[in-house]
Amino acid sequence: MGLTALEERIGSGEVAAHDRVVWETIDPDGRHVLLTRERWLHILERHRELEVDPDVILGAVADPDRRVAGPEVGEEWFYSSGFGPSRWLRVVVHYEKDRGRIVTAFPRRSFP
């Protein structure tokens, strides 16, 4: 199922530059983490098999089952089990200073 013309425009670089925060949560370290409309549309489009609400993704960041440093500076991976078609849900967050933004989320069969 493709995106509608409106969804494509919302996710375009022109509109994304002025993207509004759609959802926000607090990670276990007390930092604010944002999920924008543009990133939510990315998750829906690129990981259609996931089929979860944004609250599940935010919950994985707020109260993860596991958490590891990502390969890039300022990147963390949050894991939650029991959601989606695989054993784990991985949520990738990039941090700058004391704020983070969700970059993507996708199912994982195993914990790395």
Structure report:
The protein has helices spanning 5-11, 13-16, 37-46, 54-62; strands at 21-26, 32-36, 66-69, 75-81, 88-96, 99-108. The longest helix has 10 residues, at 37-46. It is globular, with a radius of gyration of 14 Å. It has one domain (19-108). A 6-stranded mixed beta sheet has the order 1-2-6-5-4-3. It has 4 helices and 6 strands, in the order ααββααββββ. With 112 residues, the protein is an alpha+beta fold. Strand 5 (88-96) and strand 6 form a beta hairpin.
C-alpha termini separation:
31 Å
Mean pLDDT: 83
Give me the strand/helix succession: HHEEHHEEEE
Number of domains: 1
Total DSSP helices: 4
* Apparent shape: globular
- Uncertain stretches of 5 or more adjacent residues: 3-16
Q: Please give the oligomerization state of what you see.
A: single chain
Topology:
Elements: H1 5-11, H2 13-16, E1 21-26, E2 32-36, H3 37-46, H4 54-62, E3 66-69, E4 75-81, E5 88-96, E6 99-108
Parallel strand pairs: 2-6
Antiparallel strand pairs: 1-2, 3-4, 4-5, 5-6
In brief, what are we looking at here?
The protein is an alpha+beta fold.
What brief labels describe this structure?
112 residues, six-stranded mixed sheet, globular, 6 strands, alpha+beta, disordered N terminus, 4 helices, single chain
